[in-house]
Amino acid sequence: MDFSLQQLRGFVAVAEEQHFGRAAARLNMTQPPLTRQIQALERSLGVVLFERTGRGTRITAAGQALLDHCRRVLALLDAAPVAARHAAEGRTGTLRLAFTAIGAYAILADVLDLVNRHLPDVSVELTELVSPDQFAALADLEIDMGLVRPPIPDRYQSVLVHSEDLVLAVPADHALARAEDPVGLADVADDYIGYTPEGSRYLHDICAAMIGVDRYAVSQLTSQVPTMLALVRAGLGCALIPRSIMTMGVHGVRYRELAPADAHSVTLHACWSPDSPNPALHRLAAVLTREPRLGVS
Protein backbone atom coordinates (compact mmCIF):
# COMPACT_ATOMS: atom_id res chain seq x y z
CA MET A 1 0.00 0.00 0.00
CA ASP A 2 1.54 3.26 -1.16
CA PHE A 3 0.04 6.73 -0.98
CA SER A 4 1.35 10.24 -0.59
CA LEU A 5 0.68 13.11 1.75
CA GLN A 6 -0.56 15.09 -1.25
CA GLN A 7 -3.16 12.40 -1.95
CA LEU A 8 -4.37 12.48 1.65
CA ARG A 9 -4.75 16.25 1.60
CA GLY A 10 -6.62 16.02 -1.70
CA PHE A 11 -8.88 13.31 -0.31
CA VAL A 12 -9.78 15.37 2.77
CA ALA A 13 -10.51 18.44 0.64
CA VAL A 14 -12.89 16.50 -1.64
CA ALA A 15 -14.57 14.88 1.36
CA GLU A 16 -15.16 18.24 3.04
CA GLU A 17 -16.17 20.15 -0.09
CA GLN A 18 -18.18 17.24 -1.57
CA HIS A 19 -17.15 18.54 -4.97
CA PHE A 20 -13.98 18.02 -7.01
CA GLY A 21 -14.03 21.49 -8.52
CA ARG A 22 -14.36 23.31 -5.20
CA ALA A 23 -11.75 21.03 -3.63
CA ALA A 24 -9.31 21.75 -6.47
CA ALA A 25 -9.82 25.50 -6.07
CA ARG A 26 -9.23 25.18 -2.32
CA LEU A 27 -5.94 23.41 -3.03
CA ASN A 28 -4.91 25.92 -5.73
CA MET A 29 -4.82 23.29 -8.42
CA THR A 30 -6.88 22.23 -11.42
CA GLN A 31 -9.45 19.46 -11.19
CA PRO A 32 -7.88 16.77 -13.48
CA PRO A 33 -4.73 16.26 -11.34
CA LEU A 34 -6.90 16.07 -8.21
CA THR A 35 -9.14 13.51 -9.85
CA ARG A 36 -6.10 11.41 -10.75
CA GLN A 37 -4.82 11.63 -7.16
CA ILE A 38 -8.08 10.29 -5.76
CA GLN A 39 -8.24 7.52 -8.36
CA ALA A 40 -4.66 6.49 -7.53
CA LEU A 41 -5.52 6.48 -3.82
CA GLU A 42 -8.57 4.30 -4.44
CA ARG A 43 -6.46 1.84 -6.46
CA SER A 44 -3.82 1.73 -3.74
CA LEU A 45 -6.42 1.03 -1.04
CA GLY A 46 -8.61 -1.22 -3.16
CA VAL A 47 -11.82 0.60 -2.16
CA VAL A 48 -14.17 3.23 -3.58
CA LEU A 49 -13.94 6.45 -1.61
CA PHE A 50 -16.53 8.60 -3.38
CA GLU A 51 -19.70 8.07 -5.33
CA ARG A 52 -20.15 10.61 -8.11
CA THR A 53 -23.52 12.34 -8.12
CA GLY A 54 -25.02 14.80 -10.53
CA ARG A 55 -24.12 17.80 -8.40
CA GLY A 56 -20.90 16.60 -6.77
CA THR A 57 -19.65 13.63 -4.80
CA ARG A 58 -20.83 11.63 -1.80
CA ILE A 59 -18.32 9.92 0.47
CA THR A 60 -18.69 6.16 0.93
CA ALA A 61 -18.53 4.24 4.23
CA ALA A 62 -14.94 3.29 3.41
CA GLY A 63 -14.15 6.93 2.68
CA GLN A 64 -15.68 8.07 5.96
CA ALA A 65 -13.55 5.60 7.92
CA LEU A 66 -10.44 6.80 6.09
CA LEU A 67 -11.38 10.47 6.61
CA ASP A 68 -11.27 10.22 10.40
CA HIS A 69 -7.76 8.75 10.30
CA CYS A 70 -6.53 11.20 7.67
CA ARG A 71 -7.63 14.18 9.70
CA ARG A 72 -5.69 12.91 12.70
CA VAL A 73 -2.60 12.18 10.60
CA LEU A 74 -2.65 15.57 8.92
CA ALA A 75 -3.23 17.35 12.24
CA LEU A 76 -0.20 15.59 13.70
CA LEU A 77 1.91 16.44 10.67
CA ASP A 78 0.84 20.08 10.80
CA ALA A 79 1.67 20.24 14.50
CA ALA A 80 5.04 18.50 14.13
CA PRO A 81 7.09 21.56 13.01
CA VAL A 82 5.67 23.64 15.88
CA ALA A 83 6.39 20.82 18.34
CA ALA A 84 9.95 20.58 17.05
CA ARG A 85 10.50 24.33 17.43
CA HIS A 86 9.04 24.34 20.94
CA ALA A 87 11.26 21.45 21.97
CA ALA A 88 14.32 23.18 20.55
CA GLU A 89 13.39 26.35 22.44
CA GLY A 90 12.90 24.45 25.70
CA ARG A 91 9.16 25.14 25.82
CA THR A 92 8.35 21.42 25.95
CA GLY A 93 10.17 18.32 27.10
CA THR A 94 11.18 16.87 30.44
CA LEU A 95 13.28 18.40 33.20
CA ARG A 96 14.98 16.00 35.64
CA LEU A 97 15.32 17.85 38.94
CA ALA A 98 17.12 16.58 42.04
CA PHE A 99 16.92 17.96 45.56
CA THR A 100 18.15 17.24 49.06
CA ALA A 101 15.71 16.14 51.74
CA ILE A 102 16.35 19.30 53.75
CA GLY A 103 16.28 21.52 50.69
CA ALA A 104 12.84 20.18 49.77
CA TYR A 105 11.33 21.92 52.78
CA ALA A 106 12.98 25.20 51.88
CA ILE A 107 12.57 25.69 48.17
CA LEU A 108 11.24 22.75 46.13
CA ALA A 109 7.65 24.04 45.99
CA ASP A 110 8.88 27.47 44.84
CA VAL A 111 11.02 25.96 42.08
CA LEU A 112 8.13 23.81 40.84
CA ASP A 113 5.89 26.88 40.85
CA LEU A 114 8.49 28.73 38.80
CA VAL A 115 8.57 25.88 36.26
CA ASN A 116 4.76 25.86 36.06
CA ARG A 117 4.67 29.60 35.41
CA HIS A 118 7.49 29.88 32.89
CA LEU A 119 7.57 26.39 31.34
CA PRO A 120 3.97 25.15 31.66
CA ASP A 121 4.37 22.46 29.00
CA VAL A 122 7.55 20.97 30.48
CA SER A 123 7.13 17.92 32.72
CA VAL A 124 9.32 17.47 35.79
CA GLU A 125 10.87 14.26 37.11
CA LEU A 126 11.96 14.52 40.75
CA THR A 127 14.76 12.65 42.51
CA GLU A 128 15.96 13.00 46.11
CA LEU A 129 19.77 12.91 46.37
CA VAL A 130 22.36 14.32 48.74
CA SER A 131 24.51 17.04 47.17
CA PRO A 132 27.60 14.88 46.37
CA ASP A 133 25.37 12.37 44.56
CA GLN A 134 23.72 15.20 42.66
CA PHE A 135 27.11 16.41 41.40
CA ALA A 136 27.89 12.87 40.19
CA ALA A 137 24.49 12.61 38.49
CA LEU A 138 25.03 15.97 36.79
CA ALA A 139 28.40 14.78 35.50
CA ASP A 140 26.78 11.70 33.97
CA LEU A 141 23.84 13.77 32.62
CA GLU A 142 21.47 11.61 34.66
CA ILE A 143 19.76 14.75 36.00
CA ASP A 144 19.41 18.20 34.48
CA MET A 145 19.45 20.42 37.56
CA GLY A 146 20.19 19.96 41.24
CA LEU A 147 19.23 21.97 44.30
CA VAL A 148 22.46 21.65 46.22
CA ARG A 149 24.50 22.95 49.13
CA PRO A 150 27.95 24.42 48.50
CA PRO A 151 30.77 24.04 47.76
CA ILE A 152 29.95 23.66 44.07
CA PRO A 153 32.58 22.22 41.71
CA ASP A 154 33.92 24.69 39.17
CA ARG A 155 32.71 22.61 36.23
CA TYR A 156 29.08 23.50 37.00
CA GLN A 157 27.09 26.69 36.68
CA SER A 158 24.91 27.74 39.59
CA VAL A 159 22.75 30.48 41.03
CA LEU A 160 21.80 31.20 44.63
CA VAL A 161 18.09 30.47 45.07
CA HIS A 162 17.59 30.42 48.84
CA SER A 163 19.10 31.63 52.06
CA GLU A 164 17.77 31.06 55.57
CA ASP A 165 18.86 31.28 59.18
CA LEU A 166 19.62 28.36 61.44
CA VAL A 167 17.47 27.94 64.54
CA LEU A 168 17.92 25.73 67.61
CA ALA A 169 15.64 22.72 68.08
CA VAL A 170 15.25 21.65 71.71
CA PRO A 171 13.05 19.11 73.54
CA ALA A 172 9.71 20.57 74.64
CA ASP A 173 10.56 20.04 78.33
CA HIS A 174 14.01 21.64 77.99
CA ALA A 175 14.80 24.75 80.05
CA LEU A 176 15.59 26.72 76.89
CA ALA A 177 12.17 25.87 75.45
CA ARG A 178 10.64 28.30 77.94
CA ALA A 179 13.11 31.15 77.45
CA GLU A 180 11.72 34.34 75.94
CA ASP A 181 14.87 35.85 74.46
CA PRO A 182 17.08 34.44 71.70
CA VAL A 183 19.50 31.86 73.05
CA GLY A 184 23.26 31.69 72.70
CA LEU A 185 25.12 28.52 71.93
CA ALA A 186 27.02 28.93 75.18
CA ASP A 187 23.70 28.42 76.98
CA VAL A 188 23.36 24.91 75.57
CA ALA A 189 24.82 22.47 78.08
CA ASP A 190 23.47 19.38 76.35
CA ASP A 191 25.01 17.32 73.60
CA TYR A 192 24.27 18.34 70.05
CA ILE A 193 22.70 16.15 67.42
CA GLY A 194 24.48 16.95 64.19
CA TYR A 195 24.83 16.17 60.52
CA THR A 196 27.01 13.40 59.17
CA PRO A 197 29.93 14.68 57.08
CA GLU A 198 29.19 12.02 54.44
CA GLY A 199 25.56 13.00 53.81
CA SER A 200 25.51 16.69 54.76
CA ARG A 201 29.07 18.01 54.61
CA TYR A 202 28.03 21.65 54.24
CA LEU A 203 25.73 21.71 57.27
CA HIS A 204 28.15 19.52 59.25
CA ASP A 205 31.04 21.93 58.69
CA ILE A 206 29.00 25.03 59.50
CA CYS A 207 27.56 23.58 62.69
CA ALA A 208 30.96 22.22 63.77
CA ALA A 209 32.46 25.67 63.32
CA MET A 210 29.61 27.31 65.24
CA ILE A 211 29.60 24.87 68.14
CA GLY A 212 33.24 23.88 68.20
CA VAL A 213 34.76 20.80 66.63
CA ASP A 214 35.49 19.10 69.97
CA ARG A 215 31.91 19.36 71.20
CA TYR A 216 30.44 18.50 67.83
CA ALA A 217 32.68 15.49 67.32
CA VAL A 218 31.08 13.58 70.21
CA SER A 219 27.45 14.37 69.32
CA GLN A 220 24.86 12.10 67.74
CA LEU A 221 25.13 12.34 63.95
CA THR A 222 22.46 11.71 61.35
CA SER A 223 21.86 12.69 57.73
CA GLN A 224 18.06 12.71 57.92
CA VAL A 225 16.21 15.62 59.53
CA PRO A 226 13.21 13.54 60.69
CA THR A 227 15.66 11.28 62.55
CA MET A 228 17.42 14.32 64.00
CA LEU A 229 14.18 15.78 65.33
CA ALA A 230 13.10 12.41 66.69
CA LEU A 231 16.34 12.30 68.71
CA VAL A 232 15.72 15.86 69.93
CA ARG A 233 12.20 14.87 70.97
CA ALA A 234 13.63 11.89 72.85
CA GLY A 235 15.79 14.29 74.88
CA LEU A 236 19.12 13.12 73.46
CA GLY A 237 20.27 16.63 72.63
CA CYS A 238 19.64 19.84 70.70
CA ALA A 239 20.11 20.50 67.01
CA LEU A 240 20.79 23.40 64.68
CA ILE A 241 18.39 23.24 61.75
CA PRO A 242 17.42 25.49 58.82
CA ARG A 243 14.40 27.61 59.65
CA SER A 244 12.26 26.01 56.92
CA ILE A 245 12.32 22.69 58.83
CA MET A 246 10.12 24.32 61.48
CA THR A 247 7.19 23.69 59.14
CA MET A 248 7.41 19.99 60.08
CA GLY A 249 5.86 20.88 63.45
CA VAL A 250 7.17 17.80 65.29
CA HIS A 251 5.33 17.19 68.57
CA GLY A 252 7.65 17.47 71.54
CA VAL A 253 10.15 19.77 69.82
CA ARG A 254 10.45 23.54 70.25
CA TYR A 255 12.41 25.96 68.08
CA ARG A 256 14.40 28.91 69.42
CA GLU A 257 16.00 31.87 67.68
CA LEU A 258 19.76 32.24 68.07
CA ALA A 259 21.32 35.32 69.61
CA PRO A 260 22.75 37.72 66.99
CA ALA A 261 26.33 36.80 67.93
CA ASP A 262 25.65 33.16 67.08
CA ALA A 263 23.26 33.64 64.16
CA HIS A 264 24.27 32.01 60.89
CA SER A 265 22.53 31.50 57.56
CA VAL A 266 22.81 28.62 55.11
CA THR A 267 22.33 28.71 51.36
CA LEU A 268 20.89 26.54 48.64
CA HIS A 269 21.84 26.78 44.97
CA ALA A 270 20.40 25.63 41.68
CA CYS A 271 23.21 23.86 39.83
CA TRP A 272 23.53 22.48 36.30
CA SER A 273 26.05 21.37 33.74
CA PRO A 274 26.71 23.81 30.87
CA ASP A 275 27.25 20.72 28.70
CA SER A 276 23.65 19.53 29.10
CA PRO A 277 21.84 19.15 25.75
CA ASN A 278 18.42 19.77 27.33
CA PRO A 279 16.93 23.07 26.03
CA ALA A 280 14.32 23.09 28.83
CA LEU A 281 17.14 23.17 31.38
CA HIS A 282 18.81 26.18 29.80
CA ARG A 283 15.48 27.99 29.58
CA LEU A 284 14.88 27.41 33.30
CA ALA A 285 18.45 28.40 34.13
CA ALA A 286 17.92 31.70 32.31
CA VAL A 287 14.76 32.31 34.32
CA LEU A 288 16.50 31.52 37.61
CA THR A 289 19.37 33.83 36.71
CA ARG A 290 16.95 36.70 36.07
CA GLU A 291 14.74 36.06 39.11
CA PRO A 292 15.63 37.20 42.62
CA ARG A 293 16.15 34.55 45.27
CA LEU A 294 13.10 32.34 45.63
CA GLY A 295 13.23 32.38 49.39
CA VAL A 296 15.05 34.29 52.11
CA SER A 297 14.30 33.79 55.77
From TrEMBL:
One Pfam assignment: HTH_1
Residue ranges of domain HTH lysR-type in the record: 1-60
Residues that span the membrane, as ranges: none
Keywords: DNA-binding, Transcription, Transcription regulation
GO CC terms: protein-DNA complex
Family of the protein in this entry: Belongs to the LysR transcriptional regulatory family.
Protein's recorded name: Transcriptional regulator, LysR family protein
Lineage: Bacteria, Bacillati, Actinomycetota, Actinomycetes, Kitasatosporales
